[in-house]
Amino acid sequence: MSPKRKKLVAIVAGVLLAGSPVAAFNLWLNGLVERQGQEEVDLSVQRTIALAESRIIRVMATLDGLAERGVDSCRPVNLEAMRQATFATISVKEISIVAADGRTLCTEFGAPFDQRKLVSSEKVAEGSNVLLELLQVGERPGNMVRIRRPGLGSANGLAALIPFELFVAQVSTQGGPLSAYARVATRQGAVIGESGPPEAKSSGDHLVASLTSPRYGLNVTMSLPRASVVADQLDLRMVGLVITVAIAAVLIGFLAAFGFLLPKRERDNPIAEIERALQAGEFIPYYQPIVDIRSGRLRGAEVLVRWRKPDGTIVPPASFIPLAESSGLIIDLTRALMRRVCAEAGATFGCRQHLKIGFNLTARHFSDEEIVGDVRAIFGRSPIRLSQVVLEVTERQPLDNLTETRRVVAALQGLGVQIAIDDVGTGHSGLSYMLKLGVDIIKIDKMFVDSIGTDRNSNTIIETLIDLAQNMRMEVIAEGVEHFEQVVHLRELGIRAAQGYVFSPPLPGSAFLQLVEAIDPLKTPVESAGAAEQPELPLSRFAS
Ligand code: C2E
Ligand code: CA
Ligand code: CA
User: Fold this and answer.
1) For 322-373, how does the pLDDT look when each residue is reduced to its tens digit (9 = 90+)?
2) Topology of domain 283-517, per CATH?
3) CA-CA distance, 529 to 235, in Å (whole number)?
4) Which atom of ligand 1 is nearest to the CA of 317?
5) Does 317 sit in the ligand 1 pocket, CB within 6 Å?
6) Residue 304: CB within 6 Å of ligand 1?
7) Residue of higher predicted confidence among 223 and 349
8) Of 390, 400, 451, nearest to 422 (Cα)?
9) Distance 506 CA to ligand 1 centre (A)
10) CB within 8 A of 176, min separation 6: which ones?
């Protein structure tokens, strides 16, 4: 066939192949829209519950920390500690010293200058002495939530203010602003706040979901007008059209090129080669176990990517990650890796909620909120809970926009995900990063682990890091642990978790899953009948 004719056949075939999905697409769309709308409301309610609970847990931990340090009056040294705690706890707007009768004696900046009116007060949970209160502060519209930890007897207590908006998931599962109406109420029914467009509350026909949180009994109700879902449908139809045109273009291009254009060039271009490998699913996860060095139990794993070439060779990440990063392909690569982990290890992690799974992200991931939508979409549909996910960001590369990064970190934490700083001690800005980003975990680099017991300076640095981590309630994981003597030293230093060749190298999926089944077997129904008495695992941030 002549090339001209070949192209013509390709165009016709492309159009025909692409055209038939349009009809099917429309049919499928109508059913999908209703389901998607309901799913959106259901998921948003669940996310809001998870968010609100995790905020309360965090804030109570901050107040406990201050109380343990004896902060109970308006002395300057106490105010300084309160300022630091406000800075380090993302959801806290203000910390104050309160008298036994509930009056605000001072905030972290001194005397409170605005009027405060107590709207309601109740125990945060049955049997707890901590109070969840609603407060009208100054001219601010709506209520602020106050978590109050009373002092003993007539002693002063501590309280923290959380703006109501921080309780409600602000973005939709599709990544845009949430168009649903939301109402959050306390265990005893006091309305903490309402948000969302007013028409979503009042008019006509709605998709509705309501849920009560397991730990604090908060009730969240959300509703989404069916009409707004139908409006979205118009967008979807446009998307359908665009997809169809795109499919046609790709098919035409592909068929036209077939036989006489591409392969050779691609082999010479390493970026195109990574793209091809991505399409072919050649990037696969290896899993390095992370061990609790006090109990010897498995705490989870870090995912480390490998490139498995068609001939079976396994290429380490150092050979392709830098190029994937500079070309921007790292975003697709990370997404593909997360999906693969969900498919391969979802069931194993899903029934072991105490196990965490860590992924490596790069500075680029924190430059906008795309990662938030990706993580939500990928793990929202997986048996792996968002509360099991840890995202690592290395300290080696500078993060260029700290404000945006902090926002992305907070949004991810809002999903229930934990953030770790990787390779701590090797970059230039370690301590300030940690303080400003409000991360949950720090990973101490192999370089320091190697020098433990031999180098005085390193010991001091590690001790300082551990101190800091404990004060800020961050976890510490030691990396690159190769000898048992190091394990002993680390344990003496108060470190609880470690990974390294002494326990296991990164393992391919099948080997890792076998290891989990062997050392962390599922309980039989008889054993698990008593499971409710198990203590809560230290890494879990909220009941899910
Ligand atoms: P990392 O995140 O610091 O990962 C730890 C590296 O140390 C891994 O190298 C691991 O195999 C190695 N390692 C673990 N235990 C020991 C030990 O006891 N001794 C020694 N000598 N090495 C140990 P790996 O797998 O070659 O990964 C290298 C780096 O590539 C990672 O360093 C990470 O920065 C990057 N990387 C790996 N996977 C990904 C990924 O999916 N995305 C991104 N952005 N980066 C990745
Ligand atoms: Ca890492
Ligand atoms: Ca590391």
Assistant:
1) 999 999 999 999 999 999 999 999 999 999 999 999 999 999 999 999 999 9
2) TIM Barrel (3.20.20)
3) 49
4) 30
5) yes
6) yes
7) 349
8) 390
9) 9
10) none
Question: DSSP secondary structure string, 221-273?
Answer: EEEEEHHHHHHHHHHHHHHHHHHHHHHHHHHHHHHHHTTTSSHHHHHH-HHHH
* Binding site membership of 388 for ligand 1 (Cβ less than 6 Å): no
**Relative to the alpha carbon of 423, which ligand is closest?**
3
b (16+ CB within 10 A) / e for 448-481: bbbebeeeeebbebbeebbebbeebebbbbbbbb
Domain ranges of the chain: 20-246, 283-517
Per-residue pLDDT tens digits for 15-54: 556 656 666 666 666 667 777 778 888 888 888 887 788 8
CA pseudo-torsion sign 301, 307, 313, 318: negative
Reported as half-sphere exposure (CB side, CA atoms, 13 A), residue 273 has a value of 14
pTM > 0.85 = no
Say if ligand 1 is within 6 A of residue 291 CB.
Answer: no
pLDDT at 201 over 80: no
Query: Which residue carries 């002549």 as its tokens?
Result: 2
| Residue 337 Cβ < 6 Å to ligand 1 | yes
